[in-house]
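chain below, 184 aa
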Amino acid sequence: MNNKTFFLFSFLPAFAYWGLEAYYPPKIALLGGILLAVVELGLEKIFTKHVHRFSLLNFFLILFLGGIGVIADDGIWFKFQPSLGSLVMVGLLCFYKTKKRSLMYEMISDLKQKTPLPEDFYHQFEGHLMFFFLFHSLFMGVITIYSETSIWVFWKTGGFYLLMFLFMVFEVIWFRMFGIKRRK
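prediction:
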């Protein structure tokens, strides 16, 4: 399994937090989530000989928000990780867009793989992806504030993939109908 594209998106800390929160005070649940974030990074390093930059981003968000949660003795901070992670993605994609560069194109190039699509596709796709992550951030913020932890865990894990699947169906339809717009 020496595949550098494999990473866990901090699922282990979310499940640990969910399980521990049901039986223990927030500090214990938060510390369990933070501990499993460290384990998850270790597993990624062992299995891929590499730690993906998004795994590091998620780890530091979990560490930062979990730390605030431990100090405040309130688990809601930990649960804001997917919302803030999506906002960071919006900011990162905006930054690349203003520089007229493509994050995805550069990531594929960094992995020393041939890019399967023209660079113009990635620029257009990332524009749509910014809106997806903005929606996801707002949606997860509402879920974090108004829902139970079990619902939050669903939307953080499987629900994210469901939303991403629907987004990708939209993208396929969009690109089939309108094609790739060439940049000037």
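The chain has two domains: 1-79, 80-184. The mean pLDDT is 85.
thats it, cya
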